[in-house]
Amino acid sequence: MEIIFLGTGSSMGTPVIGCPCAVCQSGDSRNQRTRASILVRAGTRNLLVDPGPDLRVQMLREGIDHLDAVFVTHIHADHVNGIDDLRSFNYLQREVIPCYADQFTIDSLNERFSYCFAPPDPSWSKPSLSAHVMTDKARWDEIEVTPVPVMHGKLPILGYRFNQAAYLTDVKTVPESSMTLLRDLDLLILDCLRYEDHPTHLSVDEALDLARRIDARRTIFTHMTHDIDFDTLSASLPSGMELAYDGLHVQVGAQGAC
Ligand SMILES: [Zn+2]
Ligand SMILES: [Zn+2]
Ligand SMILES: [Zn+2]
Fold this sequence. Notes:
Pfam families: Lactamase_B_2
Organism: Thermithiobacillus plumbiphilus
Domain Metallo-beta-lactamase: 34-223
Mean pLDDT: 97
Bound molecules: zinc ion
Order of helices and strands: EEEHEHHEHEEEEEHEHEHEE
Low-confidence stretches: none
Protein name: MBL fold metallo-hydrolase
Helix content: 10-25%
Number of strands: 14
InterPro entries: Metallo-B-lactamas (IPR001279), RibonucZ/Hydroxyglut_hydro (IPR036866)
């Protein structure tokens, strides 16, 4: 199984429009972050987490031409506002693509993007998704997917576990009942917004603390703002912990070096 970091930025991306700060002006490509999203692939299966607003450029960059399913963590714009560009996959595949999320997110998607859940038109000129409330494990060939409820401040949202890897973006706290779903991980991908405390996201110190408690064999931090310079924070992270960057590919499992 391979995980591709499509995007590793927070809601505004990095660089932030009009920002003169050193990170936004940095020439380091690892400081250039599109909105947070991953692709999980094994064999011919491609599973997307979050159709964010940078979906089109991310898919072009990685050469993705097929999606088996889309998982949505929550309804915030930086995680769903690329939903219209899923149309390209409907057009290529000539089929409805299944979309998985919790009940609140499915209801909100139906409200905001009702045309995506209407019966497909014959020319596939609109995105065409089928809605599925994810309450239990599901499987795509060798990829087993487990929903992991977490708290994004006061908003309950979903993280997802894919075999021995888990993706927890936009998280502030993890209930004890979900900690048991995060045992024995080869890879944990975790929210790490900025140095300063935030009401709905993990700060750097909180992310390090939660990563130590979950104790995956490898932890990669994501969903970072322009406060975080890749080289500066990377240099201070303990072994087994690192920062994500757009375009990073990680192998997980049997043949992987994770
Ligand atoms: Zn977000
Ligand atoms: Zn900046
Ligand atoms: Zn959010």
